[in-house]
Amino acid sequence: MLSTFREHRPARVLSAALASALALTVSGCSLDNTGNGDTVKVVIGYQSKTINTVTAGTLLKAKGFLEQRLNAIGAKGGAKYQVEWQDYDTGAPITAQMVAEKIDIGSMGDYPLLINGSRTQANERSRTELVSITGYNSKGALNMVVVAPDSKAQSITDLAGQKISASVGSAGHGTLVQALTRAGIDPKSGVEVLNQQPQIGSSALESGQVAALSQFVAWPGLLVFQNKAKLLYDGAELNVPTFHGVVARRDYAKQHPEVLDAFLQAQLDATDFIHQHPLEAAQTVADNAGLAPEVVYLYNGPGGTSFDTTLKPSLLAALEGDVPYLKSIGDFAELDIDKFVDPAALRQAYQERGLNYEAELADNANPLPGSGGELWLTGQDTTQSVADPTALLRAVKQARAQGKTVRAAYVPDAELGTRWFADKAIWVRDGDNYLPFITPAAAQRYLAKHPAGAIVGFDQAVNEVRV
């Protein structure tokens, strides 16, 4: 039976207790005297197509939450505020601009965050602090390695000696380095990594110039959705948390604490919105990032990325464990994680809203939990959740019988739980049950223990399943 999808997370208690921030006097060299009063400029660096940062980037910008909060401060008298948004493909150019003191607040993945902290710490004016998390995955899922649709590769070991495209210093590259290392392949000598931006790497994969592409969200899902690639490796196999977060220049935050507070409040607004209206949020992000809504919803739908702003100990421990990565890719200065992370401003933002920061910090559950599957029919502005993947197949079969078109269907991987496109999964029939696996290696691991199982195509599974 189908059940209508319901949002799981209640709305936060919005508080007007911004008095302390509203009363702050604005001063410092960032003021631009325009003749119409003092104007404080804040430059935000974001990545429109990096779905795990949308609550501090694309969605935040599209909904105007930051501008609304800054306007509320300005309406109390004093300075006016001007927000400038700068869109980049990866975290590296955001870091370069922060080093040059041209970006005040930026969002990026965990490995780029390490580089950001290392690169900016030499100069007090450019020095940054990690102030919040945008989204995370406790197992490291959704950073992925994909290959061409006709590739013979079945596992990461099949990439030995091959050319692989990745953005060096990105979360996708960090996943590749760890995956190769665990497979016994030297990331430097065992493969040839081409340092390419995601779009360039996608073209290189499509033209056959590289054997694989290792990237962060949403590139793997986009290419698979477009039938330009198939999934070979999911970062969840590493079982190491990955996340994206927000960094702010300490000097700017010191001069304009009310701006950082407004940003974090706005990020909480965007986080609430994605929890309460995930499908609408996906469509908003898609419209503003030039991505297919089905791809965006793969990541920010139920059971996808955990959008949670708190700086969880498990994530910081993973970041600490990633520090050696800096040395593996270049000459980077040592980074003290304890000094790099500062939750004080976020704690204040929670307090102003009457929220319990410590309670959310201790809660490791996805605020928007998934189900056994989710069905999105063409022409509908709601989705339906089902109990398990076999039930999803039945729902698809019933929809087709009624002449309805399936816009997208999502299932959790039977081994690691990663949310994926149902029609792109590898299905195994085992008795009356149908199990989806998102990589060939995962399916083979199951079959090795359950020899009675058999691989079937998605359409075959839909046709076979008993209604």
Shape: globular
CATH class of the largest domain: Alpha Beta
Let me know the CATH homologous superfamily of the largest domain.
Answer: Periplasmic binding protein-like II
The total of beta strands comes to 20
- The low-confidence parts are 1-36
Counting structural domains, the number is 3
Average pLDDT reading: 91
Query: What is the CATH topology of the largest domain?
Result: D-Maltodextrin-Binding Protein, domain 2
Helix content: 25-40%
How would you characterize the largest beta sheet? 7 strands, mixed
Main structural class: alpha+beta
Please report the distance between the alpha carbons of the first and last residues: 10 Å
What proportion strand? Answer: 15-25%
Task: Using the CA coordinates, give the radius of gyration.
Answer: 23 Å
CATH architecture of the largest domain: 3-Layer(aba) Sandwich
Number of helices: 19
Kindly describe this structure.
- With 467 residues, the protein is an alpha+beta fold.
- The protein has 3 domains: 14-138 and 242-362, D-Maltodextrin-Binding Protein, domain 2, CATH 3.40.190.10; 144-238, D-Maltodextrin-Binding Protein, domain 2; 373-464, Beta-Lactamase.
- Helix content is 39%, strand content 21%.
- The chain has 19 helices and 20 strands.
- It has helices spanning 19-22, 58-63, 65-74, 92-99, 110-120, 171-182, 198-207, 219-225, 250-255, 257-276, 278-289, 293-300, 313-329, 337-340, 344-352, 357-362, 389-401, 440-449, 458-464; strands at residues 3-4, 31-33, 38-46, 80-87, 105-109, 128-137, 144-147, 163-166, 192-195, 212-215, 230-234, 242-249, 306-307, 373-377, 384-386, 406-412, 419-421, 426-430, 433-437, 454-456.
- Strands 2, 3, 4, 5, 6, 12 and 13 form a 7-stranded mixed sheet that branches. A 5-stranded antiparallel sheet has the order 1-15-14-16-17, with helices on both faces. A 5-stranded mixed sheet has the order 9-8-10-7-11, with helices on both faces.
- Helix 4 (92-99) packs parallel to helix 5 (110-120).
- It is globular and about 70 Å long.
- This is ABC transporter substrate-binding protein.
- It comes from Nocardia tengchongensis.
- Residues 129-281 form the SsuA/THI5-like domain.
